[in-house]
């Protein structure tokens, strides 16, 4: 019986154009969704809402640098 070796997880600028693994793509989508929901609900400070949304967007963007 042949065993399959897992491909190593890589991170870098050159990995941006390659497909993102499903678990990281879901993580990034979850970060973006959660930050958007939190940022657009009843937050009294516009600065805090902006920071939350920017953090979620940056998190989503960074997950695109992972590939297998």
What this model shows, in words?
The chain is mostly helical and 68 residues long. The chain has one domain. 54% of the residues lie in helices and 6% in strands. It is built from 2 helices and 2 strands, in the order βααβ. It has a two-stranded antiparallel ribbon. The chain starts with 9 loop residues before the first strand and ends with a strand. The model has no long low-confidence stretch (mean pLDDT 85).
Q: Determine the N-to-C terminus distance.
A: 24 Å
Q: Please count the helical segments.
A: 2
Structural class: mainly alpha
The Cα radius of gyration reads 16 Å
Could you tell me the strand content as a percent range? 5-15%
Give a quick account of the main beta sheet: strands, pairing sense, barrel closure: 2 strands, antiparallel
* Whole-number count of domains: 1
Instruction: State the share of residues found in helices, binned by percent.
Output: 40-55%
Question: Order of strands across the widest beta sheet?
Answer: 1-2
- Mean pLDDT level: 85
In terms of topology, how is this protein built?
Blueprint: E1 10-11, H1 22-40, H2 46-63, E2 66-67
Antiparallel strand pairs: 1-2
List keywords for this structure.
68 residues, mainly alpha, two-stranded antiparallel ribbon, 54% helix, elongated
Short description:
This protein has helices spanning 22-40, 46-63; strands at residues 10-11, 66-67. It is mainly alpha-helical.
